[in-house]
Amino acid sequence: MSSAFHHGEEEFKGYRLLEEKFMEEHKLEEVKDAKGKPLYKVGQIYAVNAAGMPDVSEKVYDFSMTRNVMQTLISVALLIWIMVSIARLYGKGKGTTSAPSGFQNAVEPVIIFIRDEVGKPNLGSKYERYMPFFLTVFFFILINNLIGLIPGTANVTGNIAFTAFLGIIAFFVILFSTNKHFWSHIFNPPVPLGVKPIMIPVEILGIFTKPFALIIRLFANMISGHIIILSFICLIFIFGAMNTALGWGTSPFFVLLAVFIYLIEVLVAFIQAYIFVNLTAVFVGMSMEGGHDHHEHSEKEHDDPVLI
Question: Which of the four, 59, 162, 199, 281, has the lowest number of CB atoms within 10 Å?
């Protein structure tokens, strides 16, 4: 684990995580290779020699897991365990031939909600093909959102690398769902001839802005709440450093604000999982749009009563 290096302050089994302070003390930033490039980089792991100095002659491949990676693996295991457990109950007839029981009662309405409010309205008769993807993404984001609210855990969905990975997956799902009408609309938009040179680059750019919006929306919303809570807690110590009585006097107020934001974050955890999946479904539906006939067909299916 990367944490074994204690932020570069100590060696670990003959290796060191190079930090800026260590480089400044030993003037390693001045060491260049034959091409004039810095030989040592901050944040890299190097093997150390007998003198405790990093040895660039020995190649190091860093496969250590960060807290974000470890928590993501835990979330994956938790998602698989929950879904497999519920699937086994349905296999035994609970929820089909008899009333659902236990955790089924909490999960089944969510699945039905995603099906009826996300899949069917946006994809019409093709919704069943995408339901496994939508449900997996929804519950995966939701689980990570909720775990990130536990003190001491990592805010995985507040990490841009994590949301970027989900956005890239959504990007490829959108692309693989496209048809001839979609690409003809991109490269031959239904606008006057003089406007086409302007609209074509805009339409091409729109292909990439859709997943980018998914990435930034989830990242910004999940990190903002944590920043606000941290800010309220920090204000207690700031006021306490100014005046002890002021710190103690304002602390109940800031703690209540932090708790209030924390409770809102629980709601946001569900909302952001839903928004990510719903927008993905909207973008997939737009990519397979076949004209007015498809629109009318989707609206008719959405208006029909659904028997559960």
Answer: 59
What is the 3-state secondary structure of the chain? CHHHHCCCCCCECCEEECCHHHHHHHCHHHCECCCCCECCCCCCEEEECCCCCEECCCCCCCCCCCHHHHHHHHHHHHHHHHHHHHHHHHHCCECCCECCCCCHHHHHHHHHHHHHHHHHHHHHHHHHHHHHHHHHHHHHHHHHHHHCCCCCCCCHHHCHHHHHHHHHHHHHHHHHCCCHHHHHHHHCCCCCHHHHHHHHHHHHHHHHHHHHHHHHHHHHHHHHHHHHHHHHHHHHHHHHHHCHHHHHHHHHHHHHHHHHHHHHHHHHHHHHHHHHHHHHHHHHHHHCCCCHHHHHHHHHHHHCCCCC
User: pTM, whole model, 2 decimals?
Assistant: 0.78
122 and 190 both lie in a single domain = yes
Query: Domain span at residue 11?
Result: 2-55
Same domain assignment for residues 160 and 28:
no
| Domain-embedded: residue 272 | yes
Which of 55, 78, 95 is the C-terminal boundary of a domain?
Answer: 55
**Residue 297: pLDDT band by 50, 70, 90 thresholds?**
very low
Structure confidence by residue, pLDDT tens digits, 45-74:
777 776 677 766 667 666 667 788 888 999
